[in-house]
Write a sequence for this structure.
């Protein structure tokens, strides 16, 4: 028998509820804590593995027990990496779902006067930029988070090594240089995004008014604007990519050379113990890996940060 049931209520939080309450209800803080714990444990085991192998090599007594201990530490990293990837995937899926639901809810509550002055090209650009903001949760945000954790651990490890606190201060100075170039990359990217959005808006508007252009505009002038926009876009792309290539090559590799040079004296003069030198080597490699993640993270964070300017109106409209 078929029966029609009415007057039902869907019991759930409204899309315009507090975003932190929605995140807690979806279990996102638990996934975040799992991700951080798994990654932090991996870093500690990585440092311990370098202490095992470095001490054995620098002492000149490479026994089988040290090799077995080093291999066991590396094998332990495999389940931790799987655990970390699972937590990252669950956190990314949950965050992306909340973000898209909030954007849709906000878009449906925009007043006509708020979007009437925008053409089809600008609205299309806003939709396209919302995808870039979501990439923050799927990739670049995790890279920046892991880079911060790795840098903190590297600072502590270097302070315990042959270079002491001086080595940690040297790393801080190098990270400050990396952040300066990151700010420069953000400024160049801002100009590039403005050129990109201008091209998108112009292209859609010209497609909509194509028949009018055919009737009223001279054929010789059809593509003058497109050529100017493409030339400007290419110039902004070159300016941005120059900075990106520079920081991608200089920051991680430059630190590796600087860090190794800083412990050469301790190794040559025999002023540091083999264990301390091994700890410094592990800290240098960990800091190099962290700066690679930092460069990848903040270059990827620039796009969502700039795209947020286009999508924030939809997100704030969800509070109505």
């Amino acid at each position: 028998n078929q029966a029609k049931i009415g007057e039902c209520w869907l019991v759930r939080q409204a899309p315009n509820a507090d975003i932190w309450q929605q995140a807690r209800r979806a279990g996102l803080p638990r996934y975040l804590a799992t991700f951080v714990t798994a990654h932090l444990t991996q870093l500690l085991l990585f440092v311990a593995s370098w202490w095992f192998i470095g001490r054995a090599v620098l002492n000149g007594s490479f026994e089988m027990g040290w090799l077995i201990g080093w291999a066991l530490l590396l094998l332990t990293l495999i389940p931790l990496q799987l655990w970390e990837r699972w937590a990252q995937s669950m956190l990314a899926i949950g965050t992306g779902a909340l973000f898209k639901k909030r954007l849709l809810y906000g878009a449906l509550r925009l007043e006509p006067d708020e979007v009437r002055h925008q053409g089809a090209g600008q609205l299309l650009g806003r939709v396209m930029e919302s995808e870039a903001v979501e990439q923050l949760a799927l990739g670049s945000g995790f890279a920046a988070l892991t880079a911060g954790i790795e840098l903190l651990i590297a600072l502590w490890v270097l302070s315990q090594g042959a270079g002491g606190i001086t080595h940690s201060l040297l790393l801080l100075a190098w990270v400050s240089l990396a952040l300066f170039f990151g700010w420069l990359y953000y400024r160049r990217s801002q100009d590039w995004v403005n050129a990109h959005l201008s091209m998108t808006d112009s292209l859609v508007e010209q497609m909509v008014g194509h028949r009018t252009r055919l009737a009223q505009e001279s054929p010789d002038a059809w593509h003058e604007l497109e050529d100017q926009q493409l030339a400007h876009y290419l110039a902004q792309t070159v300016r941005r990519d120059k900075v990106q290539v520079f920081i991608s090559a200089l920051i991680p590799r430059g630190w590796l050379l600087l860090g190794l040079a800083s412990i050469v004296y301790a190794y040559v003069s025999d002023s540091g113990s083999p264990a301390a030198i091994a700890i410094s080597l592990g800290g240098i490699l960990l800091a190099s890996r962290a700066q690679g993640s930092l460069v990848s993270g903040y270059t990827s964070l620039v796009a969502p940060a700039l795209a947020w300017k286009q999508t924030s109106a939809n997100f704030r409209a969800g509070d109505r």
